[in-house]
């Protein structure tokens, strides 16, 4: 039982002031880092496939995703927010044959996502951990972590969201569905240039 990786990469980066996904970090565009993590999971057979939701017209990001061999889902209405991207992505997975048993959801503005965290989340889900499994990072234990694994039976949670709401809003209303896996480190969002400057600049 393997999930399908889903990268949400259709944000406009309005708080950043430019297309933050193309801003360089460690010599590569920000979005290249989660793309590489997902591609590695796919190539190692940890996930069954990989897709990314991309804003219509964002050709540079689309090119990076296609170069890595990820399936592209075009979001023609990115102004509807993260919730719309999530529904689009899950809807595209529901149309696949065979339909994935679960979706492992990554955010494109989290470039330092540890691959080990994704593997721990998948392992917990495969062992029957719960309908929703998400990491709890040691450096930020009070913050909801990504990547989040949604069992196929839990995809309907996205229908309750609007605008910029992410899974955290839906899951706060259904805590009994969520299993947390404790992992090392952190996986911060990059919303502003200051956030980017706080990331470790040196390669691991």
Task: Describe what you observe in this structure.
Helices cover 28% and strands 22% of the residues. The chain has helices spanning 32-43, 59-67, 82-94, 115-126, 167-172, 193-198, and strands spanning 4-9, 24-25, 28-29, 49-55, 71-75, 102-107, 132-137, 148-151, 178-183. It has 204 residues and is α/β, with parallel strands linked by helices. The two termini are 30 Å apart. The model has no long low-confidence stretch (mean pLDDT 90). Strands 5-4-1-6-8-7-9 form a 7-stranded mixed sheet, sandwiched between helices. Strands 2-3 form a two-stranded antiparallel ribbon. It is built from 6 helices and 9 strands. It has a single domain (4-197), classed as Spore Coat Polysaccharide Biosynthesis Protein SpsA, Chain A (Alpha-Beta Complex), CATH 3.90.550.
Helix and strand arrangement:
Elements: E1 4-9, E2 24-25, E3 28-29, H1 32-43, E4 49-55, H2 59-67, E5 71-75, H3 82-94, E6 102-107, H4 115-126, E7 132-137, E8 148-151, H5 167-172, E9 178-183, H6 193-198
Parallel strand pairs: 1-4, 1-6, 4-5, 7-9
Antiparallel strand pairs: 2-3, 6-8, 7-8
- Sheet bearing the most strands, described? 7 strands, mixed
- Secondary structure: number of strands: 9
Q: Kindly, what is the distance between the CA atoms of the first and last residues, rounded to a whole number of angstroms?
A: 30 Å
* CATH architecture label: Alpha-Beta Complex
SS-based structural class?
Answer: alpha/beta
Q: Which radius of gyration do the C-alpha atoms yield?
A: 16 Å
Low-confidence runs: none
Strand order of the largest sheet: 5-4-1-6-8-7-9
Looking at the structure, the CATH topology is Spore Coat Polysaccharide Biosynthesis Protein SpsA, Chain A
Percent in strands: 15-25%
Helical proportion? Answer: 25-40%
CATH class: Alpha Beta
CATH superfamily label: Spore Coat Polysaccharide Biosynthesis Protein SpsA, Chain A
Report the principal-axis shape: globular
Q: What is the count of helical runs?
A: 6
> How many individual domains?
1
Task: Give the overall average pLDDT.
Answer: 90
In sequence order, what are the helices and strands, one letter per element?
A: EEEHEHEHEHEEHEH
């Amino acid at each position: 039982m393997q999930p399908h990786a889903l990268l949400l990469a259709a944000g406009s980066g309005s708080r950043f002031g430019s297309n933050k996904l193309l801003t360089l970090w460690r010599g590569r565009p920000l979005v290249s880092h989660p793309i590489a993590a997902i591609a590695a999971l796919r190539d190692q057979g940890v996930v069954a496939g990989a897709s990314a939701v991309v804003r219509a017209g964002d050709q540079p990001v689309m090119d990076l995703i296609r170069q890595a061999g990820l399936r592209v889902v075009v979001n023609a209405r990115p102004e509807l927010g993260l919730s719309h991207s999530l529904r689009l992505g899950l809807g595209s997975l529901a149309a696949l044959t065979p339909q994935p048993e679960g979706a492992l959801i990554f955010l494109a503005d989290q470039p330092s996502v540890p691959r080990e965290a994704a593997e721990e989340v998948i392992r917990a889900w495969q062992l029957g951990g719960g309908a929703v499994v998400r990491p709890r990072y040691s450096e930020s234990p009070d913050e909801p972590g990504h990547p989040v694994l949604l069992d196929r039976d839990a995809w309907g949670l996205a229908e309750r969201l609007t605008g910029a709401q992410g899974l955290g809003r839906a899951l706060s209303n259904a805590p009994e569905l969520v299993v947390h896996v404790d992992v090392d480190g952190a996986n911060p969002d990059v919303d502003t240039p200051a956030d980017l400057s706080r990331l470790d600049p040196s390669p691991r």
